[in-house]
């Protein structure tokens, strides 16, 4: 359970850094698995979500290895998600993003899903799993603390500096939970090595999933899920079927 000061940091700043969260064997397996998938999927990698110039992406990861179903249902992370969104939340997507070596472009500032908090409060929360050290040179994520409280979006396409921005650095194995209404974005990578991360992204139950898990997961993946994983993935949630199936089908992602 996050303590009082962690909860306050999430509330006030909009993010919480959990150093050393991922045990070394799990970190090694995650790195191995994402590299294998990038090799296997080639130019199709990320296509269930989107391609991004200057970065490799993977999407629909829960269907691509049992370890991924484990990481979206980690009780300590879920407690943080619940603190931000409330008890009615679900996974929206699990993606990987690797900033390419010598990628000169920072991502535009954004809130995930272009989400603005509504009358019920916050409805998106992300967890960023560092698979490599995040350093000032290699494309660490920048954030504007407290911007989740402003209830507006940054100017579209802006990649410049913003007052009060902070770069979130940390060692591989760190997880950063962030209120995804907070303005943020990946930065340029000035090194010769990639910078890899997973994004386990959650949303409130009354919103569609970014990737409709029940439609994308193979029957054997669904059959192997624990009760907690089924709940987090909204497998037995008829309201989610109604909300999310249409968006996923429209995007052409449904298998
Ligand atoms: O990987 C990162 O540093 C952040 C990426 C991000 O914010 C996004 O792709 O929406």
Structural overview:
By secondary structure, the chain is an alpha+beta fold. It has one domain: q2cbj1_9rhob like domain (Jelly Rolls), CATH 2.60.120. The protein has eight helices and nine strands. The chain has helices at residues 4-12, 24-41, 66-71, 75-85, 213-216, 219-223, 227-232, 238-250, and strands at residues 15-18, 55-58, 89-99, 124-130, 141-143, 166-168, 175-179, 184-186, 195-204. The strands form two sheets. It has a six-stranded antiparallel beta sheet with strand order 1-7-4-9-3-2, with helices on one face. The termini are far apart.
Sheet having the most strands? 6 strands, antiparallel
Query: Which ligands does the model contain, each kind named once?
Result: 2-oxoglutaric acid
Mean pLDDT: 95
Give the CATH class: Mainly Beta
Total number of strands: 9
Q: Within the CATH hierarchy, at the fold level, what is the topology?
A: Jelly Rolls
Beta-strand proportion: 15-25%
Using only CA atoms, what is the Rg?
17 Å
Q: Point out poorly predicted stretches.
A: 249-255
**CATH fourth-tier homologous superfamily:** q2cbj1_9rhob like domain
> In CATH terms, what is the architecture?
Sandwich
Count the domains: 1
End-to-end Cα distance: 37 Å
Shape: globular
* Number of separate helices: 8
Which structural class do the helices and strands define? alpha+beta
């Amino acid at each position: 359970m996050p303590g009082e000061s962690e909860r306050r940091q999430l509330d006030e700043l909009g993010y919480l850094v959990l150093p050393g969260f991922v045990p070394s064997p799990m970190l090694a397996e995650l790195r191995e698995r994402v590299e294998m998938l990038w090799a296997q999927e080639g130019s199709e990698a990320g296509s269930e979500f989107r391609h991004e110039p200057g970065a490799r992406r993977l999407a629909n990861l829960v269907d691509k290895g049992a370890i991924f179903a484990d990481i979206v249902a980690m009780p300590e992370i879920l407690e943080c998600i619940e603190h931000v969104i409330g008890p009615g939340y679900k996974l929206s997507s699990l993606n990987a993003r690797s900033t390419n070596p010598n990628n000169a472009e920072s991502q535009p500032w954004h809130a995930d899903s272009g989400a603005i908090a509504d009358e019920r409060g916050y409805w998106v929360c992300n967890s960023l799993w560092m698979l490599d050290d995040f350093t000032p040179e290699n494309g660490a994520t920048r954030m504007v603390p407290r911007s989740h409280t402003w209830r507006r979006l940054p100017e579209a396409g802006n990649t410049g500096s913003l007052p009060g921005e902070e770069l979130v650095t940390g060692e591989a194995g760190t997880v950063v939970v962030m209120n995804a209404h907070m303005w943020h974005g990946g930065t340029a990578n000035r090194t010769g090595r990639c910078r890899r991360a997973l994004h386990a992204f959650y949303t409130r139950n009354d919103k569609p999933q970014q990737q409709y898990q029940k439609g994308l997961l193979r029957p054997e993946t669904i059959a192997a899920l624990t009760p907690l994983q089924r709940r987090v993935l909204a497998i037995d949630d008829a309201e989610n079927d109604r909300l999310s199936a249409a968006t996923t089908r429209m995007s052409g992602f449904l298998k």
